[in-house]
Model the fold of this input.
Amino acid sequence: MTEFQVLNNHSERVFLVAADVRGSRPLLTLDDSLRELALLADTAGMEVVGQATQHMNRIDSATFIGSGKVEEIKESLEEMDAHVVIFDDELSPRHQRELEKRFGENIKVLDRSALILDIFAQHARTREGALQVELAQYEYRLPRLTRQWTHLARQAGGGSARGGAGGVGLRGPGETQLEVDRREIGRKIIKLKVDIERVRTQRSSQRQQRTRAGIPVVALVGYTNAGKSTLLRALSGADIYVADQLFATLDPTTRRIDLPSGRGVLVTDTVGFIQKLPTTLVVAFRATLEEITEADVLLHVVDTAHPNVIQHIETVEDTLAEIEMPPVPRILVWNKTDLWQHDLLPQFNSGEQEYAAEVMVSAQTGAGTDRLLTTIEDVLASTLYRMKLLLPYQQGELVSMLHEAAVVEGQEHTENGVVLTVRLPASMAERFSSYRVVE
Done:
C-alpha cells in the first residue's frame, strides 16, 4: 500500500453513480458496468450502501449528471450515512471540483479510475509495481490537485513544502501553496519516470538473455479474475498467489514449464485488464506490458462462465491494440469450464483477430491442461524456421542449446563439425545464421 492512498477502505460507506449518454456504445450495459464497479469497491475493502443511474442526452458541463440528480444523490448520502461517491466514468478535473462543492466538504468524490488506482496501490507487492502505481496516481491527480491533496507531495517527497526541506527555494513572489505543491509533484513524476526507465532497461536485458538462451516465451493475458494465475499454477505446479478477486496480482510472474516433447518454455503472467482502464495505468505499466509484446505466443484466458465473457474478450483485444501488440499467434483459452453449464461455447465474432487455436480448460480442476500444452507446442512449431547448420566441435554448448530450445530433426557428425537440421524461433535463427549450410 502506498502513502498516496486516499481511501480508508473498511471504514468507508460508498454510494455508486453510473450514467448512460445517448449515442455512446459502451461494451457493458449500464447495470453490468455498475455491478463491476461494486466489485471493484468490494475489492478495495469498502461497503457499498447505495447506487443511482442517470440517462442523459449529453454530459452536463458543470456536474456531469445534472444539478437535479446531484441534489437527489446528496439526499441519499445523508440518509445512508455515506461519505464517498464513486462515479463509474472518469471525471474531468472541473467536474470533480464542482461535484465536491455541491456535495459538501465532508464528501469525497472519486471515479472509477481513482478506485482502480487505489486497488493497485493495495496490491503492488514489489518495488517495481509500487513505482508504476505511484506514477499513475501522480499523473492522474496532478490536474485535479486542490488543497485536499497538498499533503501528498510532502508525504512522498519526505519534506514539508511549507518551509521544510521540500519547499526551500521553491516559492516565488506571490506563488501560492498550491503552485508549490504542483511543482513538487511534477518533480516527483520526473524522478519516478527515471526509476521506471531503469526497470525497463533491466527487463530488456533479461529478455535479451532469454532470447540468447533460445527459450520461447508464452504470455498470459486476460480480463481481471479470468483465472490466469490459477492456470499458471496448474501448468507449472509452482506455488503462486491466487485469490478470487479483481486484480489479485499485479507484478509479473514467470515460470518455466516443460512441453510434452520435453522442450522448455517460459510462461509469464501479468496484470489483468478491465474496461475503462485508466490511461495513466496503461502508460505507467508499459515496462511490465512489454513482457507481453515480446512473447512468442499469447494465451488469451477468458472466464467462460461469466455472463459478459464476450465483452471481456473485446476489452482485452482493445487493450492489446492500444499497447501495439505485434501479430504473434494467439490461443483462446476458455477457462472455468467446470462452471459452464451448457453444451456449446459462447458465440462471438472475433472480427479481424484470428486465433491459432481454441482450448477448453479448467485451471481449478486441471481438466484440459494437457491438451493446452500440446496446443502450445503445435503453435510454437508452426512459427519455427527450418535450417541446416554446421557447428564446430568446440561449440558443443551451442549443440546442447539447440537440443533444448529448438526442434532437432537430424544430426550428423562430419570432419568439420556437427551438422544439425533444426526448426527454431526467429530470434534464434538470426543468431545461428552464420552457421547455416547453403545447399
